[in-house]
Design a protein that fits this description.
By secondary structure, the chain is mostly beta strands. The protein has 1 helix and 11 strands, in the order ββαβββββββββ. The strands form 5 sheets. A 3-stranded antiparallel β-sheet has the order 2-1-3. A two-stranded antiparallel sheet has the order 4-5.
Length: 122
């Protein structure tokens, strides 16, 4: 089974579906599902995060697509919605990064007003 992102005319993912593997039955499934929905369709992989495949395989389009994600045709990548105005996109991983690295010990939440990580609990 493969996963496919259905993308609107603004390059926003509006649906993610489970479908047939690429080339199965000799059909281009991206084209098939795109025609079915009358929208652009691109394959995505739930094993792909930060431009890395969790099982060591080939990463598909930098990140697994989700509803509301943007598809960037120039980089052929799925990008999640920007969580905070101060965060920047890492153009290697295509993940958003805070201006200050998150501490490792404890549970933290981002405070956009102070641009800091705040400890919720240890």
């Amino acid at each position: 089974m493969a996963h496919y992102a259905i993308i609107d005319s603004n390059n926003i993912v509006v649906q993610v579906i489970v479908g047939k593997d690429e080339g199965e039955d000799g059909i281009d499934w991206e084209e098939h599902y795109g025609n079915f929905f009358n929208l652009v369709c691109k394959r995505t992989s739930y094993n792909t995060v930060g431009n890395t495949h969790r099982s060591g395989g080939i990463p598909y389009r930098k990140n697994f697509a989700g509803i509301g994600y943007t598809y960037d045709p120039a980089s052929d990548s799925f990008i999640s919605p920007k969580p905070y105005p101060s965060w920047t996109l890492n153009e290697s991983t295509f993940l958003w990064e805070a201006p200050v690295p998150k501490p490792y010990d404890g549970c933290f939440a981002w405070n956009e007003h102070n641009l800091t990580w705040e400890l919720i609990h240890e």
